[in-house]
Amino acid sequence: MDFPRALRACRSGRRLSRLVVEPATRAGTTRRHASFIESGRSVPGRTVVVRLAESLELSLRERNELLPAAGYAPAYPESSPDDPEPAPVRTALDHILRGHLPYPALVVERAGELTAANRAFDVITEGAAPDLAGTGKDVHRLALHPQGPVPRIGNLAECAQHILARLGHLPELRAELTAYVPELEPSTGHLGFAVPLLLHSSFSRLRLMTTVTAFATAVEVTLAELKPQALQPADRPPQEACRQPPHSGLPASGFPGERRRRRRAPAPVRSRPWLPHTRPPHPNGGAPGTPRLGNLP
């Protein structure tokens, strides 16, 4: 694909009718020059291509794919998925996963493959077929497969619609998962501002919201595509159920293998105001003639 066509494809993917307004301004070029580039009447330099890609908010992978179309080498390195993450990355991911206990957290790569998860993620995979759960498995397939947590999801229609709507870049997977989900009437299984996961487990009835993190300053393709995800309790009762499920037969922490941390409430700080008509001690230890403090309560 030549560069003008590739650029138009990127622009249309961002639902921009033309490349001559905001993207051109953010790329540091003129509207006229941007129009000439997209029509093929002007050949952009490497710096202009990178700036246009940044102005369109393309991912690092998409930028690397756009540069060769203009005749330039990719600008961002990419490691193999089999390569171990650098030590600082492993430390950061481990901190996120462990720090979110006793609630589930996981790390997903670009296509949805599970990279890592904490022990609390067992509440999601509880009862799922072994070939659906584990490192390297697709989390979208796990979520909507009949042998996954589907029988325990109380708002399946909302969750399925939410997941399928985000798989436009993976048409084959979307078609497969659509076949798994029956025709369901949407219920009130949402919060008005977000779609939670309404999950029935051996702990309790849980409502969990998902937050997604990213390495915002990553300049390496694989690292930029790692997405740590954390499931947060949506309301107080499920939050307490996660921490201490009643009569579940599981550890008191709320999730298998998690040790409960007990914290003592801080002692109240007693106010000790100065007594009336007194002053703090003199710096010299109380010179003659300086008033002394009364007895503190």
From TrEMBL:
HTH cro/C1-type domain location: 24-63
Alphabetized PROSITE patterns for the sequence: HTH_CROC1 (PS50943)
Residues spanning the membrane: none
Pfam family name, one: MLTR_LBD
Region of interest (Disordered), ranges: 230-297
Residues in coiled coil: none
Signal sequence coordinates: none
CDD domains for the chain: HTH_XRE
GO MF annotations in UniProt: DNA binding
Lineage top rank: taxon: Bacteria
Protein name, UniProt field: HTH cro/C1-type domain-containing protein
